[in-house]
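[job 0412] stage=fold_complex status=start
inputs:
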Amino acid sequence: MISAKAKAWIERVQNGRSLYLVGVLIYILAALLLMNWLNQPGLRDAVWYPLVSALAFAAFLGSLLLIYYAPLAGVVKGILGLSILLVLLPFLGIRNTFLLEVATQVGIFAAMALGLNIVVGFAGLLDLGYVAFYAVGAYLWAIFGSPQANIAFGTDRFPLEPEWFFLFLFLAVGVAALTGILLGLPVLRLRGDYLAIVTLAFGEVIRVIVNNLDKPINLTNGPQGIRPVQRPPLFFKPWLSALGIQLDDPTLYALYFYFLVLLVIGFAIWLARRLENSWVGRAWTAIREDELAAQAMGIPLVRMKLAAFATGASFAGAMGMIFAAKQYFINPESFTFMESIGVLVMVIVGGMGSIPGAIVGATVVTILNLQILKGLSLMLNKLRQAGVVIPVIDFPLSQWPTQLEPAKYERLVFGILLILMMILRPQGLIPERRHRMELAEALGREEAAELERLPVEAEKELPPVIPAPEVKPARD
Amino acid sequence: MRRAISQSVLYRAMIVPLIQLVVFVAISLAVIGSTVLILAALFNRPVAGGMTLLQFVIRTLPQVAIDGLVIGFLYAMIALGYTMVYGVLQFINFAHSEIFMVGAFIGVEIMLALAIPSTAPLMLIMAGILLAVAAGMMGSGLLAVAIERIAYRPLRGAPRLVPLISAIGVSFFLQDAVRAIEGLLNNAFYRNYPSFPVLNQQIPLATFTFAGQPVQMQIQAKVIFIIIASLVMLTGLNFVVNATRLGRAIRAVAQDRPTAALMGVNVDRIIMLTFLIGGALGGATGVLFGIRVGRIDPYVGFIPGIKAFTAAVLGGIGNITGAMLGGIVLGVLEGFAGAYLSQFTGGAFGAEYKDIFAFLILILILMFRPTGLLGEMVGQKA
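[job 0412] stage=fold_complex status=done
writing structure:
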């Protein structure tokens, strides 16, 4: 009996599967040791610390991707992934709450990217005003979860108690979805690029309204923003102290938001996957691939597009609300066109229509923004103060213009990412499965290995596009 | 015989558009102005300064109209860049607003480098501005061509959203690239156009008496300059598009690219030249815009860009005359909204909301008349 089991074990090892497991475990351990080493108090002042810690954190999160791709049994993958997300990361985070902050932000953006992915990736509708729904969710809770509503409605009932947070989470989903439908109804007749500009305009309209709605009734407090926004209740604090765990409130809140976002994102992934393979998802794909054909097959275009808009919007609404509660303070600055593009960059970097792509894109872009660019800025400042001179060109860093700070150049990074992705790899880092499947069918299984390279080349081979012949009145 | 033809071409390509422009200006001013007057008469009530709303409107109307027209001309010139590219490629050149911004920066650098003293004679100042405009045109035109070559041409066969996303990328890239360059050179990301008292002075146009009080209509000297410059450029563009070989090729490519190619038109070259012309117009507008507002920063192009796009859609995208009409209508509307919104709503909604006007118009036009005011059937193509 035992020998049979051992035999099976050895066979499994020889099959190579367990080797993968060992490899993944070693990787996780190495990343963990690196993170642990970086947590030493003495290292924090080192010049390279911000950059290296960002890369280490990225490597740590990369283990999730490794697990996702490793040829392991589903249960093993689940256990490994959950143990990283539920145990290891929070433990690291208790010692360094900044990590939790970054992880929470990654989660918020990942959920938004998943939502935008439904609109842009599944249904093929380019939405450049996505941040509007985020703003709707954020302001919904910010107004009622702060004394602001008293000013607006002349009562003293507000702020609502923290317990209302969870009810409002559902409300935010509903209100954002409704906003999506209201926006969608008039504009969804438009196609492609017109739709993009109209959604952009809508996003700006929401921002301008929020920015100016401090009169005639002071609903949003204008550019000053709203503070303080009520946080969700720490209902589990007594349980924790009963277990003998003593943590201060900021750490508790950081952990709380982390787990909350994790929960929401788990739900979002589940929902997106279910949608992708449902009849609704197929209808979206059909609309994306060929609107006319989809209509001819009896797909109700407007209803399906509205569904996409509403679903995408609801994700953003929920995340906006969590963001408002987490930040404690919101103002219109957080809801600019820039944010919409940021989420779009995440979707595009990951691969339009791809669920793991959206998450990877969100992780990459958020870490780039929050840690790497800021880390470079910190590094530069430290070098500047230390009076370092760039060797070859003999340029003292102290003369480096203060305007040239990497943290201020998000747009540059976004722009380069968008252009390069479009030119070199329009299908994204992790292309959608359907694209790959279609290609695999077309090419036969043998060439499946070449698939990673092919889509780009296949597009190059296309003849120059010829506009569909149309009957047009002659000009002049 | 030959002379007669060239005369008719001249007439068709230069006089008619100019007359068209004047008619557009007159119609849009008349329609929008009278609407405002009727509204003021309907909701007449006392406002600040011991006047009624109607009196206030009548007193300020001429000035507001002139200001609106100037904005309208600027929008029209930017809109031409969008509309020409759209006509040829059916593609929204999202980066056009940044081409405009780069033009403004080239202009300011030239003006600052020339260092014309602020009390210099008018002719010298004019020469300086013309030089700046020329440099802005050249720089922006070449930039537009370069962008087309690098970021759009490789994507020409791709689905429609791919080049649009690339264009958004270019737009973001240019904003921060200019910011980086300015940061490196001046350690500041904004620049101020030098101001000249000669250009800032108010020239009285007319004085009339209304309700016992004299009302003065006046116009800033630089505004006259901006209007003349835009008229010259709009007419010049009309001439190029309607009366030259190049213009005929552009129109052919816009109408039917494969057939134009079969007829021996070098499509790539025409597309490049379209970007060059559109970019040059954008650059010139950027310089004029900079002279008007004074201070520019790398993000200055975004809002005028969307509004100019709105103007192009309003007039019927792909249609050059339409872009001019759309620009003028939008500029006047916005001028009126900015000036009167606060008075009409009793201070509840101020000039801050004037930006929303453009966006609402965009949404309404696309909902109810996607072909625009003078449009062809392009709604379905989009």
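[job 0412] summary: Residues 355-385 of chain A form the longest helix (31 residues).
[job 0412] exit 0
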